[in-house]
Design a protein that fits this description.
Layout: H1 9-41, E1 46-50, E2 56-60, E3 70-71, H2 76-84, H3 87-136
Antiparallel strand pairs: 1-2, 2-3
Helix pairs in contact: 1-3
């Protein structure tokens, strides 16, 4: 799929709205995944938590907040966790991981496109203002 052409600021503004809506939709889906996982597992050894930057990451339970470990299931920590789980829970974690990766990718794409389009529209507005200013003199 090719990125849609941007012929003018109107096209960019429309795309910005599309990607903002996508980002909101994905954030909702991330929250749903987080809730569904916790409902299915109960008191998990590791939880899905939302990062400030967006997207979900795994976090081991810890007694103190400073002792919390964030990790990917493919890391050494993640593999060790998976090995400690019974097969049924292992499948639940791996299914959640596949969905987490897919949703995080969608979020990052939408977030990056939103930032780029907003930057373009801001700079394009500045150029238009400079043109008007230049034409008055």
């Amino acid at each position: 799929m090719a990125f849609p052409a941007i012929a003018n600021a109107r096209d960019a503004a429309h795309l910005l709205q599309v990607f903002e809506a996508e980002r909101s939709e994905v954030l909702e889906a991330l929250h749903t995944l987080q809730q569904r996982f916790e409902a299915e597992v109960g008191a998990p050894a590791a939880r899905l938590v939302l990062r400030r930057s967006g997207g979900l990451i795994w976090r081991l339970r810890a007694v103190a907040p400073s002792g919390q470990t964030l990790f990917e299931l493919t890391s050494v920590t993640g593999r060790s966790l998976l090995q400690s789980l019974p097969p049924r829970l292992r499948r639940v974690y791996l299914n959640a991981e596949a969905e987490r990766l897919r949703l995080n990718a969608r979020y990052r794409i939408a977030n990056t496109a939103t930032r780029c389009l907003a930057h373009y529209l801001d700079r394009y507005g500045q150029v238009r203002a400079l043109r008007k200013f230049s034409e008055r003199k």
